[in-house]
Amino acid sequence: MFSDRTAWNLESNPLSKALADRITSAKQVIDLTESNPTKCGFHFAAQQILEALSHPASLNYDPVPQGLLSARNAVVDYYRSHECAVNVNDIFLTTGTSESYSFLFRTLCNPGDEVLIPQPGYPLFNFLADIQDVATAPYPLIYDYGWQIDFHALQRAINPRTRAIVIVNANNPTGHFCRSDDMHHLNQICLEGDLAIIADEVFLDFSLGKDMLSSFASNNKALTFTMSGLSKISGLPQMKVAWLIATGPETLKQQGVARLEMIADTYLSMNTPMQLALPALLELRHNFQRQCIARTRTNLAQLDRLLSTQKLCSRLNLEGGWYAVIRVPVTGGDDDLALELLNSRGVYVHPGHFYDFPADGYLVVSLITPEPAFSAGVEALVALVGEKFRKDS
Ligand SMILES: Cc1ncc(COP(=O)(O)O)c(C=O)c1O
Questions:
Q1: CA distances from 366 to 16, 20, 324, 379 (A)
Q2: What residues pair up with 148 in beta bridges, in sequence order?
Q3: Is 229 near ligand 1, meaning CB less than 6 Å away?
């Protein structure tokens, strides 16, 4: 009765089962994976958000496949603040970055074609690709006092079926940004191989440093599709508004835009109230980002303080984003350690394999967790690793 592409193993893994059991039996959980900004105790400008949703023009239906001009102009303004000049005619509004990926996979790939994805990386890629009958192949990120793309391995991963390279800027969960020489290198590879760049920039604004980071939205060398949306920028995932922007060599870009327009016209998935609210909701990002960046800085400083009292766990360097990667001794699998931490201390973390780390020894925590829970959770993690290590040695 069902398609092969949906023949997933839908059994929950032992960690998710243990989490569900704890929640059902009302046992305490300190959740160090929480990355839903609406659940992290941030202060949202409730009245302004709700007012933005009650625009009188919401009573009309005038569908525009790429999205209402007023909403796309707000996206242009956002990029202007990043010193990027974006053409309003090259923007498509979507209901989420996931939908943007789907539109792009449909535009660029035949069934069985491949896109290259970063490893470690965002866990949803394989599902997004599966649903569109696209294959993924990983290209490794390597860590040497900081993360970088392994360009040799990336080039080796390209084959005649490769259609695009996905870049996540800043990458989830490694928290590193793409530098201008990386962008240059990627452009060369993509121009030589007739490949497109898909740049996911949902974490672009969350740098821990002072410098403004370059967006791919002004990349005109290779065919490029830059994506972002309200879910991270303004901390409003429930609003379901995102976008993708086409740039690149003019003729190629125009062909891409025309094909995307057909897809967007077929679905017309954007609702009117949200498009009318977009300018106001984008403007409110400053209020959210101030709180969010302060939270990630405070939690990171606390993580460093707690880790400085011992030598078994350390954290990997990061430049931004919402996550920290903690290096732990490999006394067993990361899944087992995460399970033991949950069962014995009530602390929930993601094992590295969730993000496709190629080896054991990594746990991932969310830096937007409310501060008291973050501190208590990391303290329990460090204590457990210390006890285990003493027992094993
Ligand atoms: C790298 C990355 N892209 C996209 C998303 C989701 O974006 P959206 O809510 O717009 O689908 C996430 C969410 O965690 C993410 O980590």
A1: 17, 19, 6, 15
A2: 142
A3: yes
Strands lying side by side in the sheet with 224-229: 91-94, 242-247, 224-229, 196-200, 162-168, 114-119, 135-143, 147-149
Residue among 299, 288, 294 at smallest CA distance from 365 = 299
Task: Please give the structure tokens belonging to residue 243.
Answer: 């976008």
* CB of 242 sitting under 6 A from ligand 1: yes
Q: What pairing do the DSSP bridges indicate for beta strands 135-143 and 147-149?
A: antiparallel
- Map tokens 């490949």 to a residue: 195
Q: What gap in Å lies between CA 292 and CA 43, rounded to an integer?
A: 10
Residue with tokens 């980002």: 289
Query: Does residue 164 contact residue 129 with C-beta atoms inside 8 Å?
Result: no
Residue of 33, 103, 124 to mutate, ligand 1, most atoms within 8 A of C-beta: 124
Q: How many CA atoms lie within 13 A of 150 on its CB side?
A: 17
Rounded Cα–Cα distance for residues 375 and 109 (Å): 45
Taking a C-beta distance cutoff of 8 angstroms, is the pair 92, 260 a contact? yes
Q: Helices in 176-319 by DSSP H: which ranges?
A: 180-193, 230-233, 250-267, 272-283, 285-307
pLDDT for position 367: 98
Token pair of 117, please? Answer: 């994805």
Cα separation, 346 vs 363, in Å, equals 15
What atom in ligand 1 is closest to the CA of residue 171? 1
Over residues 111-162, the pLDDT tens digits come to: 999 999 999 999 999 999 999 999 999 999 999 989 999 999 999 999 999 9
Reported as a single tens digit per residue, the pLDDT across 317-344 is 999 999 999 999 998 899 999 999 999 9
Q: Give mean pLDDT, residues 249-260.
A: 98
Q: Measure 231 CA to ligand 1 centroid, in angstroms.
A: 7
pTM reported for the whole predicted model: 0.97
From start to end of the chain, where are the E strands?
30-31, 91-94, 114-119, 135-143, 147-149, 162-168, 196-200, 224-229, 242-247, 314-315, 323-327, 347-348, 350-351, 362-366
Angle at 180 between CA 176 and CA 181, to 5 degrees: 100
Which 3 state secondary structure label does DSSP give 167?
A: strand
